[in-house]
Amino acid sequence: MRRYTGYAYRLPEWICETTHKDNVDWKADRTKWKKELLGFCDGFDFLGLEVIEESKGEADNEYFIEFLARLRTRNQVQKNTRTSPSMRLPKPSPLSTVC
Predict the structure, then answer these.
(1) How many CA atoms does the CB half-sphere of 53 hold within 13 Å?
(2) pLDDT in tens, 49-91
(3) Where are the beta strands (DSSP E) in the chain?
(4) Residues facing 64 on adjacent strands
(5) For labelling, which of 1, 27, 57, 60 has a CA lying 20 to 30 Å from the CA of 93?
(6) Which fold has domain 2-90?
(7) Band of the pLDDT at 99, cuts 50, 70, 90?
(8) In the chain, what are the domain boundaries?
(9) What is the C-alpha to C-alpha distance for residues 89 and 63, in angstroms, rounded to an integer?
């Protein structure tokens, strides 16, 4: 849910810092990537996030979350976006949340 918050609060630096290099979204050109992220953030109103299902992974610090993110393109009809079927996330530490 912290990733959603990063987008909703327009935090491109945080998104870049917390994206693993093996992720398909990771880009070496940080300046260009941040501009793209801000363009995406500015194109949507972030309306909410609903956790659908949580399950523990094989490792102690791993779990999977399926969620429904509600976004509305600016000046258009609301769209609901569901992740593809689940997302692997590191187990958060109590002090590493984004407000």
Answers:
(1) 11
(2) 999 999 998 988 888 989 999 999 987 655 555 554 445 555 5
(3) 44-56, 62-73, 78-82, 87-90
(4) 55, 88
(5) 27
(6) Nuclear Transport Factor 2; Chain: A, (3.10.450)
(7) very low
(8) 2-90
(9) 6
